[in-house]
Structures are given as C-alpha cells and as structure tokens.
Recover the amino acids of this structure.
C-alpha cells in the first residue's frame, strides 16, 4: 500500500510540514493539502490555489522586526501582572524592544531581558 501525503499549511498558505499516512484519513483537516510525494522542497513555499510559489527572502531588518514582535507577544501576559517577580525588568525590556528599530544597534544587536 502506498502512502498518502499532505502539505500542512499555516494561515498564510505557507507549507510548514509534509506528512504521510498509510491509509486515508476519515476527516482531512482544512489546512491539509494533498500532494503527490513527501517533498521537502515545499517547506516555506506558498500555495496560491493552483501552484507552489517561493517566498521572497526577508531582509535582516524584516527578520529583526519579526523577532521583536514575537518577543513582545511572548511577554504580553506579564504586563497586567504587576506582582510578577520579573515585571519591572520585563517592562524595561518591552520598552527597549519598541525603541530598538530606531537605534543604531538595529538590526545587529537584539535587546536582552534584564539589561
């Protein structure tokens, strides 16, 4: 019996993984797209509805901003917890993250928690 392969797409239709199953799934998740083979070259490509398209590489500044935005998101839950042991340091870190793109250190030197 041959395997059945699916590309797993994120919300932007970018392939995050390719998985194979030995038998058909009873219910295929909506973010699964049937593909012919376990093709790792699909990873990071976008499905536009009829073909796979390569994504343009991000610049260093774009990567840095994405990292910064993730760090802000990860620390969001500490903001309302004024009794959190790292609250003061986290708030200073978040301020540094927001200011970072306008500094001469951007994008080379990332802010660090506790500095």
């Amino acid at each position: 019996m041959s395997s059945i392969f699916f590309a797993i797409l994120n919300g932007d239709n970018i392939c995050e993984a390719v998985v194979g199953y030995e038998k058909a799934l009873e219910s295929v998740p909506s973010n699964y797209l049937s593909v012919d083979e376990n093709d790792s070259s699909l990873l990071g490509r976008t499905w536009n509805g009829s073909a796979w398209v390569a994504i343009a590489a991000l610049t260093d500044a774009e990567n840095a901003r994405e990292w910064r935005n993730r760090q802000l998101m990860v620390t969001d839950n500490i903001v309302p917890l004024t009794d959190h042991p790292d609250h003061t340091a986290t708030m200073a870190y978040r301020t540094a993250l927001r200011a970072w793109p306008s500094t001469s250190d951007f994008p080379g030197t990332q802010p660090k928690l506790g500095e």
